[in-house]
Each structure stands twice: as C-alpha cells, then as structure tokens.
Amino acid sequence: MDTETITTPDAGVAMESKEDTEAFTMVKSKKTQKRKREQDGADMDTEAPVASKRPQFPPISSDKLKGADEMRKVAVPAHRYTPLKENWMKIFTPIVENLQLQVRFNLKTRHVEIKTCKDTKDIGSLTKASDFVRAFILGFNVEDSLALLRLDELFLESFDVTDVKPLKGDHLSRAIGRIAGKGGKTKFTIENVTKTRIVLAETKVHI
C-alpha cells in the first residue's frame, strides 16, 4: 500500500522559513567593525611600540637671541633743550655705564637716540632707558626719573584734564588750579599719599 505524503499548509510555511534562515547571513554593524579595528590597532601598537625620539636643538647664543641692534627715539620740545643740556651727564652716565647702551642727541632731528650694542646684556634695558629719558623730557627731575631704571614696577601715565571732564576757558583753568593747590600744596599731598610724582603741563597731567 502506497503511502502518500500529505503536506499541510503549516508544514510548507515551516520549510520555507527554515530555508530563509539558512540563506540569511548575519551582517555586522559599522560600530562593531570600527571597534574591532580600533582594538586590532591597539594590539599592534602594544606589540610593536614605535620609539619616539625628542628633537635636539643646539643652544642659541645671546648675540643671535638679541638679533639686530634696536633704536628708540625720544622727541625733545624746544622748552626742554636747556634742562637737557644742563643735566646731560646725569642722563648719559646711567644709560651708558649701568644699562650698557649707546645714547646721543641728534641736533638735526632734535631727538634723543638710544641704541643697543654688543655689550648690552638685558634686552629690556632699551625700554627702561627710553622711559627714563621720556620722563625727564616731560618735566620730572633726574632723581625721580632714575627710579624707572632701578624699579621694575614703575611706569609712566599721561592724560588730559579734558579727558576726565570737558571744560573750557576759566572752568579749565580753575580745575588745573584745584589739582595744583596754593603753592602746589594739593599736588604734594597727592604725591605723598599715593607715592607718585605728578607734573602739570598746561592741560596735561603726567604721573
């Protein structure tokens, strides 16, 4: 007796699903592949470490560090020619002997020219010397200006009275007179309390 194979609908569906699962291949996500590549790269780095050598540079001499000679120029107004001539040696000596700089007064351009040379050790000496000469040109005494060479925390500041409050005519004159005081008494008091030196030149105030 022949036996017939009876296929039910459920059995057909089961066979098709089995074939689909056999034909389906698992696809790895991009994140998984990237993570695996990073792990492989890390393993390679640990297996064969690359010896990183720090570059060695020869020391630079002080002459090359300074570069070319630099120059600063300070303009001298006409009313400061006589005081500059009288106190020239007091200005010349500390700049040349202490700071190892070169200085001269150019009669044609009417400027005090300060220049570095091969004997200059500190690069910042040029700035100190120019501030020292500029302070004297603004009206400070040589002794007060010398403090700019000895102390690093000192600096010059200039402003106009009209920068604080716009005044004209008699109102401006009265404001300047209030800063100076009778016989300069108010100015001296401000200088002693604030440990500064003040020069009043018309509407300009130099501190």
TrEMBL record:
Q: Does the keyword Chloroplast apply?
A: no
Residues covered by the PNO1 second type I KH domain: 158-207
Q: Annotated region Disordered: where? A: 1-64
Q: What is its main location?
A: nucleus
Question: What Pfam families is this protein classified in?
Answer: KH_PNO1_2nd
Where does it live in the cell?
Nucleus, Nucleolus
- Entry GO CC: nucleolus
Query: Cross-referenced InterPro entries, in alphabetical order?
Result: KH-I_PNO1_first, KH_dom_type_1_sf, KH_PNO1_2nd
**Name recorded for this polypeptide:** PNO1 second type I KH domain-containing protein
